[in-house]
Amino acid sequence: MFLISSSVHGSDEHGRLLRRTLMRYVNLTSLLIFRSVSTAVYKRFPTMDHVVEAARGIKHILPANFEMQSF
């Protein structure tokens, strides 16, 4: 988080939205990694629909045809 806030400059609305969007991507990536590694996280989020329901506001990040493959 510190790296993003120090790398993306600007105190205006655009900079704030860019930092927020980048952190959403980082959090989503972390969740997907934890989901593939941890059984407890996988049980909490068995499908991507559960992820979207749990985190309001990220549905616009995922592509319309996004489908998670189980490993």
TrEMBL record:
<keyword id="KW-0813">Transport</keyword>
<keyword id="KW-0406">Ion transport</keyword>
<keyword id="KW-1003">Cell membrane</keyword>
<keyword id="KW-0472">Membrane</keyword>
<dbReference type="InterPro" id="IPR021134">
    <property type="entry name" value="Bestrophin-like"/>
</dbReference>
<keyword id="KW-0407">Ion channel</keyword>
<dbReference type="InterPro" id="IPR000615">
    <property type="entry name" value="Bestrophin"/>
</dbReference>
<dbReference type="GO" id="GO:0034707">
    <property type="term" value="C:chloride channel complex"/>
</dbReference>
<dbReference type="Pfam" id="PF01062">
    <property type="entry name" value="Bestrophin"/>
</dbReference>
<comment type="function">
    <text>Forms calcium-sensitive chloride channels. Permeable to bicarbonate.</text>
</comment>
<protein>
    <recommendedName>
        <fullName>Bestrophin</fullName>
    </recommendedName>
</protein>
<dbReference type="GO" id="GO:0005254">
    <property type="term" value="F:chloride channel activity"/>
</dbReference>
<keyword id="KW-1133">Transmembrane helix</keyword>
<keyword id="KW-0868">Chloride</keyword>
<comment type="similarity">
    <text>Belongs to the anion channel-forming bestrophin (TC 1.A.46) family. Calcium-sensitive chloride channel subfamily.</text>
</comment>
<keyword id="KW-0869">Chloride channel</keyword>
<dbReference type="GO" id="GO:0005886">
    <property type="term" value="C:plasma membrane"/>
</dbReference>
<keyword id="KW-0812">Transmembrane</keyword>
